[in-house]
Amino acid sequence: MKEYVSILKKTKLFAGVGEEEISAMLSCLSARMQIYKKGDYVLRQGTHLSDITILVAGALHIQKDDYWGNRSILGHIGVGEIFGEAYVAPESGVLINDVVAIEDSAVIFFDVKKIITTCPSACQFHTRVVQNMFFTISEKNKKLVQKLDHMSKRSTREKLLSYLSEEAQKQNSSTFTIPFNRQQLADFLSIDRSAMSNELSKMRKEGLLDFEKNCFRLL
Predict the structure, then answer these.
(1) What's the chain's Rg over C-alpha atoms?
(2) At 49, is the secondary structure helix, strand, or coil?
(3) Which structural domain range is residue 208 located in?
(4) Which of 42, 65, 78, 160 could form a disulfide with 99 if both were Cys (CB 3.0 to 4.6 A apart)?
């Protein structure tokens, strides 16, 4: 697990904490690591969660399948991101979504009770980690609001332009790569894939954008 300390140092949860301090805190926070193959379920809906989790290798999707097998992708989790924090409160209930590895991945689990409770050894940086967790949750709530903004658009074109515009601003470039293939993008925006592909082709012909696979350029 210690080979991922340098990655943990770059996460928002451990911002401002040195690698030596993080290594010392792993035991304090009851950290444990799990390895997943592409397609494995990291978390399944219907289960209770008492850990905050950080992805240290690979990529994950938060998704949900309905009774008929229709899939919605609610979010993409990249290296260094926290997930599962919305369900660790005592009254949060069970998970309502699945978390699936879309490539070989490594996840570190931290006991949330150990994070929010000062440890017997009174780690110097423990308070900072608690503050970081609060700010991280606030930022994730902001991302949820941003996705709701995409979803509130009426047409397929408006949803696509809203999402792609946000990605261009986030990556500070008119040329950028998104973390979804075509089907995943359609599932993320809750639109029909064929209609989406047709709309993308129309926008390219109109000179609004260009694309190759998951690389886009806004014109």
Answers:
(1) 19
(2) coil
(3) 150-218
(4) 42
